Amino acid sequence: MRPAIIELTLVRLREFVREPEAMFWVFGFPLLLALGLGIAFRNRAPESIRIGVLQPAPAALAASLDSSAGLAVERLADDSAGARALRNADVALVVAAANGEVEYRFDPSRPDARAARQLADDAIQRGAGRRDPLAIRETTISERGSRYIDFFIPGLLGLNLMGSGIWSIGFAVVTARKQKLLKRLVATPMSRTQYLMSFLLSRLFFLVLEVGALLGFGVLVFDVPLRGSLWTLAAVCLVAALTFSALGLLVSSRARTVEAVSGLANLVMLPMWIFSGVFFSAANFPQAVQPFVQALPLTATVDALRAVMLRGAPLASVTGELALLLAWLVVPFVVALRVFRWR
Amino acid sequence: MTASAPDGSSALLVRGLRKRYDDVVAVDGLDLDVRPGECFGLLGPNGAGKTTTIEICEGLTEPDAGEVIVLGRTWAESGRDLRERLGIQLQETQLAEKLTVLETLRLFRSFYARGRAVDDVIALVRLEEKRRARVSALSGGQKQRLALGCALVGDPDLVFLDEPTTGLDPQARRQVWDLVEQLKATGRTIVLTTHYMEEAERLCDRVAIVDHGRVMALDTPRRLVAGLGADQIVFFSVAEDAVPRITADALAAIAGAAGATQPARATDGGWELPVTATHEAIPALLAELERRALPLAELRTHLPTLEDVFVSLTGRALRDA
Ligand SMILES: Nc1ncnc2c1ncn2[C@@H]1O[C@H](COP(=O)(O)OP(=O)(O)OP(=O)(O)O)[C@@H](O)[C@H]1O
Ligand SMILES: [Mg+2]
User: How many CB pairs lie under 8 A apart between chains A and B?
Assistant: First the structure.
């Protein structure tokens, strides 16, 4: 006879592997997402920016623009065609030339429009005879660790730890509650703490598979660097997985229906999707919201993962993130245990 | 293995139990005294308060008032120990669909410090052939037997079964009855709820008839039936066009003529009369109908059952209450 905590954990594992859909969302979906985004952003050849030139335009001006490496130039028939192209974002900039004067039409809040203006102006002025006073030399780099995919894989890893922890536990708990299975279980001498612990333990097992799959994929297919020690990385993943499992338990501690738990889970996860710097750096958010952003468990997870993977940070330098995650682990677990609805 | 409270008197003692939900009084001052080793039945219609009562006894629901002593102890003082000694089957639990029979029983077994071997329980509930089948692949009767297995795997002294056969076909029901009888034979105390009077009559040593959260009567099935004072229940109906002429007065006269021990009661398009001397009652009944020119359509008799006891106590039938 095995101890109850082992039996309970085995139940979690069996229920999961016997649910093909769940397997897809945990393993298949993140891999597809990584593949898609990885291909979209792979070796981003410096892409030309599309601009438009209103006709008629002086031949010399058009030729200068055509020969500029960073620009793809389109001829536009008249003002209204130009306005339409701008509005649809077909072009970042429209150049109109008349009576020896050049006019740039663009939206200065778009970074590519500002770049296009700069490139177009350079090409036109040089074509018209401008000489630059200083000699320049360009050195271009494409280093592993600075590409978007390198930035994105640790973010995706964190996102996956959060999503599978909260979803898998939320659904399992609410289903058991709806079926009155929870009520039946507490009618036995089963320890309630062990029941909740079994969710955390089962996550550890899947953690190895999930992280292994995503990381292996990133390293093998996109050559994403893994500069820190695997042990440090494992420690971060472990703590993060437990943390999100505890949040999953808290989210599902009272809900009676799948709809209710879905809503709550989305409410908890959405801010982290947006603010935690998975898809772009969290530093982009204004200073005023930074305390909030930095307090989110996913921010801590993603920061720690990037530090370890991309910069080779040792365990000692991610203790701040780990401490925050531990707080997010202990408090929700204790609260969940207290408020949990068993019937 | 016989369960007995320290004082040797009650396996379950309930005094003045009350529970209300918002505007519904589910249990309204209920008393029970279940002796060790007996099979005790709570018989009552839907909404009578059987589940509420049994779940309070199981320590799953807090009563508003009243006292519950299980195996000589209270839930507040020895909840944890009591859990080890009770076997519970709830009315509406669905076990985990994706687990097999064996896995489910192993899980429940792991919660108890002492208990029976899982294989013995599988044999007891006759699921040997389904050992490795998923719960989702079991029939209703098999699921119910598995739920019973889960209740028995901790080798309990006191077993609570809430409607163990509701929704089962007659064959599956008989299999569950056999199991309960086997359990009785080993001296376990059993408390079960049901709204089938055959079930209560067949399985229970004593029955409490419950309605509106109160015990209406409590005795052995035999004595409850004997308490009706009737040897037979006579059912009669008349031709459809004559029905309007059966007024309250007419009915009272007919019952009086037949020497009924209780007023007549309408049921199934006719009326029922509990009578003592059937051989005198039937001719008298027919003569009275004749005298009133009421053409008889149907006449039947049956031995009184707990159903009739319930009817006489509440004026309603169990099945349509
Ligand atoms: N959780 C609850 N909330 C509100 N009302 C409830 C609740 N549980 C039971 N009741 C009400 O209390 C009354 C007794 O219900 P209970 O389930 O004890 O009846 P029962 O005898 O077991 O009926 P059944 O034969 O249908 O199982 C019913 O009127 C029911 O509607
Ligand atoms: Mg009930």
Answer: 73
- Amino acid code (one letter) for A221: V
* Residue in chain A lying closest to B82 (CA): A189
What is the model's pLDDT at position A45? 55
pLDDT of A232 reads: 94
Q: Quick one: fold of B229-303?
A: Alpha-Beta Plaits (3.30.70)
Query: Is the complex ipTM more than 0.90?
Result: no
How many whole angstroms from A74 Cα to the centroid of ligand 2? 77
Chain B: closest CA distance from residue A182 (Å): 9
Which CATH superfamily includes the segment(s) B12-222? P-loop containing nucleotide triphosphate hydrolases (3.40.50.300)
Helix (H, G, I), strand (E, B) or coil at B109: helix
Out of A127, A152, A167, a domain closes at: A127
**Same domain for A276 and A235:** yes
Looking at the structure, do residues A35 and A93 belong to the same domain, yes or no? Answer: no
Peptide bond into A20 cis (omega under 30): no
A132 within a domain of the structure (yes/no): no
- H/E run at residue A29: helix A29-40
- Residue B138 predicted with pLDDT over 90: yes
- Closest approach of chain B CAs to the CA of A223, in angstroms? 39
Q: What is the pLDDT of residues A29-74, one digit of tens each?
A: 778 877 887 777 665 555 788 899 998 888 888 888 888 888 889 8
Cis preceding-peptide flag for A56 (omega within 30 of 0) = yes
Residue length, chain B? 321
List pLDDT tens digits, range A6-16.
999 999 999 88
Q: pTM score, two decimals?
A: 0.80
Is the same domain home to A106 and A185?
no
Q: What is the extent of the structural domain holding A117?
A: 49-127
Contact B79, B59 (CB under 8 A): yes
Amino acid A41: pLDDT: 67
